[in-house]
């Protein structure tokens, strides 16, 4: 499974003296979730026993975000074949 690596409101650039950061800083907490809130999905995926037998899903804001191609067996098989060939090591 995977989850969104979304941006978060943090102080990672708080020592940045740049004009852009000083202008954006007041808006960051309104535009992005806190680090605690953003981590909830990853923590849920790692610890929820109900998800132990699930794989391949994409989650954002603690919700499964399914796309039609996710359930297309022919597409999945083709993608697997292409990825296997693309990443195969040559001897």
Describe the fold and architecture:
The chain is mostly helical and 91 residues long. The chain has one domain. It contains three helices and three strands. It has a three-stranded mixed sheet with strand order 1-2-3, with helices on one face. A hairpin with a 2-residue loop joins strand 2 and strand 3. The mean pLDDT is 80.
Topology:
Blueprint (H helix, E strand, L loop, with lengths): L1 E2 L15 H13 L3 H13 L10 E3 L2 E2 L8 H15 L4
Parallel strand pairs: 1-2
Antiparallel strand pairs: 2-3
Describe what is shown at a glance.
The protein is mostly helical.
Share in β-strands: 5-15%
Fraction of helical residues: 40-55%
Q: If helices are DSSP runs of H or I spanning 4 or more residues, what is the number of helices?
A: 3
Q: Main sheet? A: 3 strands, mixed
- The ordered string of helix (H) and strand (E) elements is EHHEEH
Strands across the major sheet, in which order? 1-2-3
Number of β-strand runs: 3
- Overall number of domains: 1
Q: Give the distance, in angstroms, between the N- and C-terminal Cα atoms.
A: 32 Å
Average predicted confidence as pLDDT: 80
Overall outline? elongated
* Unreliable runs: none
Rg (CA only)? 19 Å
What structural class results from the helix and strand content? mainly alpha
């Amino acid at each position: 499974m995977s989850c969104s690596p979304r941006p978060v409101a943090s102080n990672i650039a708080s020592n940045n003296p740049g004009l852009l950061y000083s202008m954006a800083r007041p808006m960051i907490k309104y535009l992005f979730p806190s680090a605690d809130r953003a981590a909830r999905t990853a923590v849920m995926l790692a610890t929820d026993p109900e998800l132990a037998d699930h794989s391949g899903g994409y989650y954002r804001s603690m919700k499964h975000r399914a796309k039609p191609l996710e359930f297309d067996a022919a597409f999945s098989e083709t993608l697997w074949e292409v990825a296997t060939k693309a990443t195969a090591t040559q001897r």
